[in-house]
Amino acid sequence: MENDLPPENEERKRPGVEREYRSHQGEIVVYWEPKVCNHTGNCFRGLPEVFQPQNRPWVLVDAASADKIAEVVMICPTGALHFERFDGGPREPQPEETTIDARPSGPLHVRGRVRILGPGGRLIREDTRVALCRCGASENKPFCDGSHRLVGFRTANPSERSGK
Question: Is residue 91 part of a domain?
Fold first, then answer.
């Protein structure tokens, strides 16, 4: 009989696995959803005193202001990080238009009102930010899991493809 549980290192990809990091003063909660994180690194480059992937817990919400944390969370291209404010600070904005940024040799970063449906119209995800696989190697399709770096996926410059 096969074990229905994912391997230990795949635990982060199970549906519903989410981490919550609350500030001691109660101003902000940061939510991290590992199953859609592809480790782009915008968080720890943007606010290294808060986002420390080498430590546990890796999100130190008391190390910076709620405003700074919110600002960095909003640049997460995958939607793996979100926040909720309890201090009257601004909420995450709902983008008015949807944009798709084809990253060089990487995923499609989609921002806006995103609703991804699977077979039979089953809702896979509804979010304001997602990173979608375009190399075909992701183990977490339709989301990017960073496999493009492992398989050497490369995109051509659009002007090279059109012969201009």
Answer: no
Are 21 and 32 in contact, with CB atoms under 8 Å apart? Answer: yes
Mark residue 19 as left, alpha or beta (left: phi above 0; alpha: psi -120 to 50; beta: remaining). Answer: beta
Tell me whether strands 99-102 and 108-117 are parallel, antiparallel or unpaired.
antiparallel
Residue 44 C-beta-side C-alpha neighbours within 13 Å: 11
Sequence-separated contacts (24+) of 156-163 with Cβ below 8 Å: none
What's the CA gap between 82 and 88, in Å, rounded? 16
Of the residues 56, 85, 114, which one is the last residue of a structural domain?
A: 85
d(CA 66, CA 82): 12
- Per-residue pLDDT reduced to its tens digit, 16-42: 559 999 999 999 999 999 999 999 999
Dig out the tokens for 59 from the structure. 């999100």
Same domain flag for 81 and 123? no
